[in-house]
Amino acid sequence: MRRSRRGTTLVAAGTALLLAVLGSVTPASADPAKSPKTITDKTGAQIKALQDVKKSLSPAESKVDSALVVERRKRTQVGATSALPSVQTGVQVSGQGTTLVDIRAKEYSEDLVNAVRTAGGQIRALSPEHRTVRAEVPLDAVTTIAGRADVLRVEAGSEAKTSKVEKPLNRTVKRAQQPSKEDKARQIEKKIAERQMSVAAAKTAESDRAHAADTARNTHHVTGVGTKLCALSDGIASLAVSQASGELPPVDVVPGQEGSGDEGTAMLEILHDIAPNAELGFATAFNGDASFADNIKKLRFQLGCDVIVDDVLYFNESPFQDGIIAQAVDAVAADGALFFSSAGNEGNVADGTSGHWEGQFVDSGVGIGKFAGSAHDFDSNPAQKQVFNPLSNYSGNTPVTLFWNDPAGQSFNDYDLYLINTQGSVVAFSQNTQDGTQNPYELLRTPAGSSGTRLAVVKFRGDDKYISLSALGGRFANTSDGYKKFVTPGVITGHAAAKGAIAVAAAPAAGALPFDLEPGDPANPKGPFPGSYDATQKLERFTSDGPRKVFFKADGTPEESVRAKPDLTAADGVTTSVSGFAPFFGTSASAPNAAAIAGLILSGNPTLKPAEVREALTTTALDIAESGVDTRAGAGLVMADRALAYTGASPQALAKAQKPTILNDNDGSAYLKPGTTATVTVPVFNGGDGTASSTSLVLTTPTAGVTIAPRSKYYGNIDVGQTVSNTFKVSIPATAQLGDAVRLDARVTFSGSTSPTAASFTVAIGEPSRDTKHFVYNGPALAIPDNDPTGVSLQFPVSGIGRASRLTFSIDGETCSTADGATTVGIDHTFVGDLVGTLTSPTGQTVTLFQRAGSTGNNLCKVVFDDNAARAFSSVSSTDAPFTGSWRSVTPLSGLIGATADGTWTFKVVDSASADRGSLRSVSFHVAGYV
After folding, report:
1. What is the pLDDT of residues 38-62, one digit of tens each?
2. CA distance linking residue 451 with residue 477, whole number of Å
3. Cβ–Cβ under 8 Å, residues 206 and 527
4. One-character DSSP codes across 179-203
5. What angle do CA 886, 891, 893 make, to 5 degrees?
6. Taking the CB of residue 20, how many other CB atoms lie within 10 A of it?
7. Do the beta carbons of residue 360 and residue 464 sit within 8 Å?
């Protein structure tokens, strides 16, 4: 009955209710204004001065972010901004005069990339799909780059935030408090050593109990087996520390996408606490919006993630149309993945914590004679006029976005955004040109000291549009001089509002948030730990509200709809072992809790479709906040025990064929040979949560002339963690050629939803040759571009091998040392922990040799990557420098064995962090065929 009532309410009345809520305006209950709150002559004059800059733009400058233009003029044209004494552009310029930009192209090309380098730019990320080049470029070169015919626009590097809640003060001092790259690396190495020396009990997030996930696992005997849960966040800097202390298992990381920071590590610990036997994966979301969209797809289509979760919002994500990130979310959801996203910590109207207003632009008539266009009137009272929306005194260092309902890349209506202080001076602004090919978007950031500031929206030219104004993490507030705040619900925006996303609000699992969001706020709520949630639980006061009104399809076609957001609520305020995340508050913590419970559901019932998992989560959720589905909690609190019971979860077997072994019946060797028969032993391992009953294996081959007898074998019942083996006879024709590949396809069937499983194994005909051929590079030193994803590559033409039977890769050298710029080592670099090295075969298959290991250590010399080495290179520390000896690679080289070795092999080294440099000097590739 509960399910029926909720569903009926949402379908029958939901749209009308959401439209009514969205359209409402919530002014403060302040005293009526004593006089019209309009723009003063001083303010108008300063806005006019900025608009004069806008009117004077060259064709190339009109394609450049307005803040970049003004910042450059301030630095190069004396007196250009003398009428704007308090204005801040927010553009960060390095000591070398460079700034981070996103170059949006009509067509992506290597010619554009090379032009950026020629202009002095350093590449940070490339996205051919989204026609974006992210680069650190000289500020003086921005206009030159924008002037190219293939460039649509040059934007200040797209900014993002995670959804971790911090004290307001921390937002202003966080950057200054960040340790250097070197100090952070030393801290991590120290922690690893401490964890290895002492054994401490693993920390389990309180959400495991609050969501009754522990009860669900014990009742249903489901642990996450058979699923892969992946996260996107800032970075996983302390991943090795968590692994050394037993908090995390191996994590599959997209090469070069480790990121920086540690929120990703904390999210992975939450996933692992609730679904301890699920596989894990990660990619950073913090290298630009295009890279974020690319990495969402990589997690699904390259790493095979079943459930993906993120906690990131890019400020340029439109509330009114699905952008590239939301489209990536929908793409992986259409492919069968479940995608969870933080609803955000931008506050809500009910708790008085919001800094969001949206509605139709109302021409105030203010501005004639002072500046072009007119300002928006926030006050719906026809007897009053207020063109400012005041921010609270604690909204410093806050990004403020303005959007209006034009389709992306097609905005003919030109709106601008200004921040004014109590003296009437403009202190921040955004006034990009919109003339038909740009996005309907403006962004400014409030200064750190932002007491008494207020926002004005000015229509420079065009029609009156529906607008959205959001102080992301700040709030609107009444002022002592009579200004009223104006807020509306619906701050949830961007990809969290995508159809394919499940947006997750937050409720505390244990103790209350230990500080006020702003001074004088009501007490923060507590969670149920050591108990579990019930219907009396209160939401976090900061959690973002919905719904989300949308005007366009992803392609810009008009289509109005209202999306009910958030979808669900889950726990925050949980403990992790990661420094700075104990406790971990914010929807950054709640989203992985919900995602992990979805992983348990899939583990206990693998045939469920994403829509069925979503139904289980929402139908069984605890109804909190307003009755039924509401705009703060969605369907309510996710409960693992109820969701798994709803789906009929049961322990699933997961029986898979393992790598076969070979015994040649003719000569007793371990190889297949022409004209002989071999006994092939195929093990089957059950890595599931339940017994694999009535297990059988069918072994077949598509290789011409090869026969297998018998075709199938019965393996019986295989208990959890047990391996059972059987033998098959494989006969090779006499006409078979040495090095030819025999493919063995193993199909394992058993009782359970995960049946059947399939695996293929390639075995070459012949015995590995003892004659190893060596392909060496010791030519001129090749510079490794600093913090550049294109890296440096070497190619090895190989012929006369056939299929590879054995291979190793060496980073050579003559005399090993840790000297900066050493010329006698294979790779000299002053921070080996920045480097990622990959080897790609002629067939296009890639293995990762080393990946961000080595910390502050210098140089690789006489290093051999060999699958038979005793130690993995991922375990090295700076004390091992210069790095030498034999090591196992990140991904085994055996993955390249059996395929053709003839063709071009590529070794690539990428420097994934800034400041340190080095060169590739001497490397070699060693490969043997078959005899």
Report:
1. 778 888 888 888 888 889 999 999 9
2. 11
3. yes
4. PPHHHHHHHHHHHHHHHHHS--PPP
5. 65
6. 10
7. yes
